[in-house]
Design goal:
Elements: H1 6-16, E1 24-25, E2 42-43, E3 55-59, E4 62-69, E5 73-77, E6 85-89, E7 96-101, E8 109-113, E9 116-120, E10 128-131, H2 136-139, E11 141-146, E12 154-158, E13 161-165, E14 173-174, E15 184-189, E16 197-201, E17 204-205
Antiparallel strand pairs: 1-2, 3-4, 4-5, 5-6, 7-8, 8-9, 9-10, 11-12, 12-13, 13-14, 15-16, 16-17
């Protein structure tokens, strides 16, 4: 099992404190870095109309398939970021907060927004709203996460609690009464103990 490198931990830390970087990536081969031992960074948002990207997701089975999102749209790249195409324009009242790709089926993509959860099951060609929530808190989706080992198991963090889907995002049920009405902002699974899920909320880490 691969352990996350130092860069991955920085991404996690910056995510936890609310930092939203632009979409940049390091190429596999570094071309004349300015300083020895340091990678040469290159922008990889060509073709995206909006410069300020909020989230990015990489297909675990195909690292050249990337999804990125601004507040208003979802973009896809099939060549590691060289070219992008808009695949989903969010409704007027919604803003994108998170993206997730199914590790067992890269055609399944979920987009968390401030007005519910949207999903595509055909590689981002068609989208539908999969989760509305019972109220304003639940409708504000803030984090979405596929389980890396359990097929079709998905976790959804909202401003009104935590939810679980056992069928890839089509149907949802509340997970844990203790997190009811808590704002679940980030989710993470322990890579060594994948049965352990962490939920960062407005009232602490659970």
């Amino acid at each position: 099992m691969m352990r996350p490198g130092r860069g991955a931990w920085w991404v996690l830390l910056l995510s936890l404190i609310g930092f939203q970087p632009l979409a940049f990536a390091t190429p596999p081969a570094y071309a004349e870095p300015r300083e020895a031992g340091r990678p040469a960074w290159q922008p990889v948002s060509r073709g995206a109309d909006e410069v300020r990207m909020k989230v990015v997701a990489v297909d675990p089975s195909n690292p050249r398939l990337l999804y990125a999102g601004s507040a208003r749209a979802v973009y896809v790249s099939h060549d590691g970021g060289s070219a992008w195409r808009e695949r989903f324009r969010l409704p007027a009242a919604a803003e994108l907060t998170g993206l997730a790709i199914d590790p067992f089926d890269s055609r399944r993509v979920l987009a968390a927004t401030t007005s519910g959860l949207y999903g595509s099951f055909d590689g981002a060609r068609h989208w539908t709203r999969l989760f509305r929530g019972a109220g304003a808190g639940e409708s504000r989706c803030q984090a979405v996460l596929f389980h890396p080992l359990h097929r079709q198991e998905v976790f959804l963090g909202t401003a009104g609690g935590l939810f679980l889907s056992a069928d890839g995002g089509r149907r949802w049920q509340e997970l844990g009464v203790r997190l009811r009405n808590r704002s679940v902002r980030h989710l993470a699974i322990d890579p060594r103990q994948p049965q352990r899920l962490y939920a960062l909320t407005d009232q602490g880490l659970f």
